[in-house]
Amino acid sequence: MEVLREKVEEEEEAEREEAAKRAEWARTEKMMRPVEVRKEETTLTQEMLRDLEKKLSEIQIPISAELPAFTKDTIDISKLPVSYKTNTPKEEHLLQVADNFSRQYSHLCPDRVPLFLHPLNECEVPKFVSTTLRPTLMPYPELYNWDSCAQFVSDFLTMVPLPDPLKPTVQKEEKVLPKKYTIRPPRDLCSRFEQEQEVKKQQEIRAQEKKQLREEEERLMEAEKAKPDALHGLRVHSWVLVLSGKREVPENFFIDAFTGQSYSTQDERFLGIESLWNHKNYWINMQDCWNCCKDLIFDLGDPVRWEYMLLGTDKSQLSLTEEDDSGINDEDDVENLGKEDEDKSFDMPHSWVEQIEISPEAFETRCPNGKKVIQYKRAKLEKWAPYLNSNGLVSRLTTYEDLECTNILEIKEWYQNREDMLELKHINKTTDLKIDYFKPGHPQALRVHSYKSMQPEMDRVIEFYETARVDGLIKREETARTMTEYYQGRPDFLSYRHANFRPRVKKLALSSAESNPRPIVKITEQFFRNPAKPAEEDVAERVFLLAEERIQLRYHCRDDHITASKREFLRRTEVDSKGNKIIMTPDMCISFEVEPMEHTKKLLYQYEAMMHLKREEKLSRHQVWESELEVLEILKLREEEEAAHTLTISIYDTKRNEKSKEYREAMERVIHEEHLRQVETQLDYLAPFLAQLPPGEKLTRWQAVRLKDECLSDFKQRLINKANLIQARFEKETQELQKKQQWYQENQVTLTPEDEDLYLSYCSQAMFRIRILEQRLNRHKELAPLKYLALEEKLYKDPRLGELQKIFA
């Protein structure tokens, strides 16, 4: 490295004996002390440096021979640019610098793994790792932020384990050549009895193997918890380091390119760092990683902690304190350092790779071929590109009970661009419970729908976006005999309604909530506190016991009381069996008041309260019935949405938006027809006939009449030919249809349903063509005389046939 020669020129005149002793002492000290303190090394002479260079050149570095290689089956190298197949002189110089740097590193750090400097590319050409990076600005805003960019890259990548987890190498797979000659298998001479006995024996063996497999799984599950990794800390992996400072990055963090997840530099899963590189330089970590990456200082300008390969103007600057900064203000030292840097600097060559180009289709497809499957332990993650599946499915996570991934526990499916705003579907295979999650915008304001069956009057929980509903309903829980609703933000302060049902009376017709509603036994309603009313007059809970004809009220409790007032009404019929009107009696109202008041004891007050409660009871029963109808409507709508699974398409997506596409094609067709019409009007209808006469001569009266007659005769013949052509096609289609109908009459008995469908389809298309030809023929017969008269009028007005105007003047 350059630090070994940094003071050679300054000490050339020193005594040879003293220099040799210091050099000998320096060599022994380097082998004993850490490499970080080599800045304080003693001076070496030119002879010592030549000897050291000779020894370094003899060191063999085990790299490049087994570095990544690609087969020609995966990449067509014939279409690659020249930069992929050859190296420029500057790249060759860089490779020599990298080899020298690697030899010095192996000499100073013999216990560390070889550096990953110049692997082989697709064309088996060594390329320096920094030149494989080419910063490119993409026209997609999603790639401007690290999280969305990392997720995009992780979707494109597919993790393939290395054959040797200790080296970043990829071995070529040897193809097995098919055998040209094979031996014919012998004839099977076994008896059936022996085969049956063998089948029974195999079944017993399989049963025993299944039992052993279950026992082995249980043993593995126990062993996996504390099983040590023999290669812990030795595996090779690469990831992305994002340094703080630019673009408002507050702190350093790592990004795993295969998952797109970010990790702190203090994470214990990152055990150490060998080297870093970007498109400008290459750094070696000279810090001790005994405490993983927690104590690492990512100051790339510090050559003690990070040894850089290239000394250039793009080298990161060392973060210095004020004390250190005050000690390097000597102008002479700065000038000398600048001269040395000028001599030793080397700029990084331009990247040899092509600029990344991502089309909008590829950016939207994300994964290769639009689909990606990632297998985890007892789980499988599947990803799809948007609009690839007709139901809008973009991701599915399946968790399994066993290691073989055969018994499914649960499934989570994520959707996009659904018209019904479905976002997530969670299916529990153990309990058969399904939970649908919706984004805001559903016609019924659904947020969550939990159910086991889509049949009505079954167990289900429906949650709503309360801000999108007028009644403030948040959640509705339904079973076969109950229905519970939760409200919020209502003007009547209703917060809870619970209805109990009994089995409905059977009818001959199909029972439903609309034709035969479930009989209501009890309705319980709870209310929030109304600050505008006193606590003893503000109802907290009311219960309508319909079967017992009773109404129970419980009022809110005042802050200074420990109990609340209660009241119960015995709801009787308004008339008795003889038709006489029943008068309110004191025994029809049983009340408990914390602070009794005079007006509450009056029968008139109690009578008005009971009449009001009767109206409220009727209204509550109607609302419960409407809730049942709404549940039926929601279930019907959900079945239609699941059957159709219509996707929403943006108006800016011209490729998928059929309406926009049809409108654009219609406009293009109109413009094309208008262009043809203009071209037709610009055609000279007299040009073929004027070409028969000498050019430049004025037409005589006889020539003008002859040209007019020839032009009209030719146009008339063209109209007749067109009519004959349409008529011939019409007759041909009619004859073919008659032949097909005759064939159908003869073979009707032996035809299959598929043949009948083909026959009906042919008849439909044939009738359509016949009808179109008939319309064209009728239209031609109507327009032919008009076109003939229009051409005749044009000929009379044409200035080149002026003699005609004199004749008819």
From TrEMBL:
Record domain Dynein regulatory complex subunit 7 MORN: where: 368-650
Pfam families linked to this entry: CEPT76_peptidase, DRC7_C, MORN_DRC7
Keyword annotations of the record: Coiled coil, Cytoplasm, Cytoskeleton
Acidic residues composition bias: residue spans: 321-335
Coiled coil: 199-227
Any GO CC annotation of this UniProt entry: cytoskeleton
Domain CEP76/DRC7 peptidase-like: 236-309
GO terms (BP aspect): flagellated sperm motility
Subcellular location field: Cytoplasm, Cytoskeleton
Region (Disordered): 1-22, 321-345
Keyword Protein biosynthesis applies: no
All copies of domain Dynein regulatory complex subunit 7 C-terminal, residue ranges: 697-804
Keyword Ribosomal protein: no
Compositional bias annotation for Basic and acidic residues: 336-345
Database matches in PANTHER family: DYNEIN REGULATORY COMPLEX SUBUNIT 7
Record protein name field: Dynein regulatory complex subunit 7
Natural source organism: Macaca nemestrina
The organism's taxonomic lineage, starting at the top: Eukaryota, Metazoa, Chordata, Craniata, Vertebrata
